[in-house]
Amino acid sequence: MASSQQQKQQIQNMLRLDTKQSKRSTMLLEQPVTRQRRDKVSLSAFAFLFAEMIRYTQNRVLGIQDLETKLNELGQRVGVRVFELTMSREKTVRRETRVLQMLVYINSVVWRALFDKPADSLERSTDNEDEYMITDNEPAILKYISVPKEMASFSPGAFISGIVEAIAACCQCPARVTSHVVPVDGLPVRTVILLKFDKDVMEREKRLEAGK
C-alpha cells in the first residue's frame, strides 16, 4: 500500500516538473524575436555542441579539406538566420550592398550578436585589392577545442567563415571565405577570416566610386 502511494507521489511530482518545463518553453517561444534576450547560452554548452558538430562531420568526410567544407556549409545555414535576425533587431541597420559598409556591419553588429564583442580588426590586403581580412584574436567557439598534431592544418573557424560567406551573399557581395589560424605570442588560436570577393563585385564597386 505504501509503495503504491509513493509511486503516485512520484508521478505527480514528475507531472508538476513537466508542467513547469513546458511553461518555461512556452514563455521562451513567445518572446518577440526583435527584442534582445538577456539570457544567453553558456560558452561551455556551446563549445560542447560545436565539438559534437566537428566529431559528427569528421566521421563522414575523407580529409581535412572536406571537413572544413562541411563546417563551412553548416556555418552558411546559420549565417542566413543571423543576417535575418540582426536585420530585424537592429533598427538603425539596413542591408549594406557596398563592400566596406558590409564588412563593418559584419565586424561590429554580427560579431557582437554572435560573440558579445566586435572582431579585433578589419584590414584590406596590400597585395590584392579584392581581399579583406577579419581577425578575431580569441574566437569564443575555439576556447575548448584542441586540434591534434596530425590535423595541424585544420581550422575549426571554417564554421565562422561559412557564417560570413552567407551574410556577404545576402548583402549581394558574394565572396569566397576561408578561415586560417595565425597564432602570435600569447594568442595561440588567433583566427583570420579571409574574404576574396567576386570579380563582378569589385567592378561594381569601381563603377559606384566613379559615379560619386
Offer a few descriptive terms:
alpha+beta; 53% helix; globular; 212 residues; 4 strands
Q: Could you tell me the strand content as a percent range?
A: 5-15%
Main sheet record: 4 strands, antiparallel
- The overall pLDDT average reads 85
Gyration radius over CA = 22 Å
Sequence of secondary-structure elements? HHHHEEHEEH
How widely separated are the two ends?
88 Å
Overall body shape: globular
User: Helical segment tally?
Assistant: 6
Number of strands: 4
- Identify low-pLDDT runs: none
Helical content (DSSP H or I, runs of 4+): 40-55%
Class by alpha and beta content: alpha+beta
Strand order of the largest sheet: 1-2-4-3
Task: Outline the structure in words.
With 212 residues, this protein is an alpha+beta fold. Helices cover 53% and strands 11% of the residues. It has helices spanning 2-30, 43-58, 64-89, 99-115, 158-170, 199-210; strands at residues 121-124, 131-136, 175-181, 191-197. Strands 1-2-4-3 form a four-stranded antiparallel beta sheet. Helix 2 crosses helix 3 (64-89) and helix 3 crosses helix 5. It is globular and about 85 Å long. The mean pLDDT is 85.
